[in-house]
Write a structure and sequence with these properties.
Blueprint lengths: L1 E9 L3 E2 L5 E8 L4 E10 L8 E4 L2 E2 L1 E6 L8 E9 L4 E8 L6 E12 L3 E11 L10 E3 L5 E9 L6 E2 L4 E9 L5 E10 L4 E3 L3 E3 L4 E11 L4 H4 L2 H13 L2
Antiparallel strand pairs: 1-10, 2-10, 3-9, 4-8, 4-10, 5-6, 5-9, 7-8, 11-19, 12-17, 13-16, 13-19, 14-18, 15-16
Amino acid sequence: MSVTVVGTVLGSFATSPGASYTLSNVQASAGDILVGWYSAIHEEEVFGTTTCTWGGTSLTKAQEGADESDPIRPDFSLWYLVVSSGGTNDLTFNPAIGSSSFSPQLTVFKITGETEVYDTSVLNVGNSSTLPSSGNLSVAQADEVLLALVVGFIDIGSRSWGGSFTSLQQTDVGDPAGGETIIDSAYLIVSASGTYNAAMATYPAASWRAGMIAFKPAGPGPAFLARPNLYRLQAVKRASTW
């Protein structure tokens, strides 16, 4: 299995209402998973009308959130698609906001190599007094792939992931107002069921929003696979009566 960053689309520091964001020529094969991760600083957002599409196919919204009490914190939405028919298409996100957005970004990921289905996801928000953390996510079986995401604003500095997460992306994006958008992502393929939390071990003083999305194998779970002898015995018994 592999997890890769397909690309990132950046808006200007102040982007007018109604803007959409497109990553062109996103290639995916049947069974691949595309994940779209959007964030920005909004003074206002109209929830429930956002869309994300790959060609003519809509992605499913896993999570969406914002901290409207403090507009310096980014709005955030997380989308996914299990590709049924491969091809190359533009991936477009329309945030449907009611005011200007500041330092918007859309990052697209692709998971390949094993048939997976969506399991669960989580979002979290914080400020300069705390290290970014996705919040707890419980998974039911081994071999689930966890994709962790953090976007921060205002400051840059040293960042690193804690635990066993493998870093995918660490991007610093300057803006005309002198602030900074910082984008980090990582992944983990779990070896056991349980509760996981993707956390940064080091991070600069910045408002942030973090999240994590989990995908599980599409086939039978470990409980089924642990009983092959029982099924073989039943098959032999049935055959002996023919």
